[in-house]
Amino acid sequence: MSHVKAGGTSKNIHNNAGQRLGVKRFGGQRVKTGEVLVRQTGSTKIAGPGTFLSRNFTIHAAVDGTVQFVKTKKSHFSGRSLPRTRVEVHAEKEVAKKATSAKKSA
Predict the structure, then answer these.
(1) What residues contact 52, with CB distance under 8 A and at least 6 apart?
(2) What is the pLDDT at residue 5?
C-alpha cells in the first residue's frame, strides 16, 4: 500500500494588504470634480446631490464644492427604515451665495 506523508502547515498565508477603505474627504473640506470621497464595500453611505457612485461603491465628487455628511433613514425592501449617512457636495456658487446672504442679513 502506498502512503503519502502529511503535508506541512502553512503559517504565512494571512498577510494580505488592507483594502484602504473609509472616508477620504471629511465634512467641510473643499473638493474638486472626480475626487474620491468615500471608499466602501457595499452601500454603507449613500451618494447624495453633487456626488456619484462608481461600480465598486466608491463615492466621487460630481462638482467642485464643499463636502457635507447628513444622517438620513433609508427604507429597506422589508419595510424597515435603516440609518444611513448621505454624502453631499455643495457647489462653490451655492456656498458663496449662502455666505453673502448671511452677511447681508447680519
Answers:
(1) 59, 60, 62
(2) 79
Asked if residue 17 is part of any domain, the answer here is: no
The answer to whether the pTM exceeds 0.85 is no
**CA–CA separation, 13 and 46 (whole Å):** 35
For the chain, how many structural domains are there in total?
A: 1
Q: 456658487: which residue's cell?
A: 93
Mean pLDDT of 90-97: 74
Exposed, middle or buried: residue 31 (CB in 10 Å: 0-12, 13-18, 19+)? buried
- CATH code of the domain in which 72 resides: 2.40.50.100
- Per the model's pLDDT, the better-predicted residue between 25 and 76 turns out to be 25
Q: Which residue has the cell 449617512?
A: 85
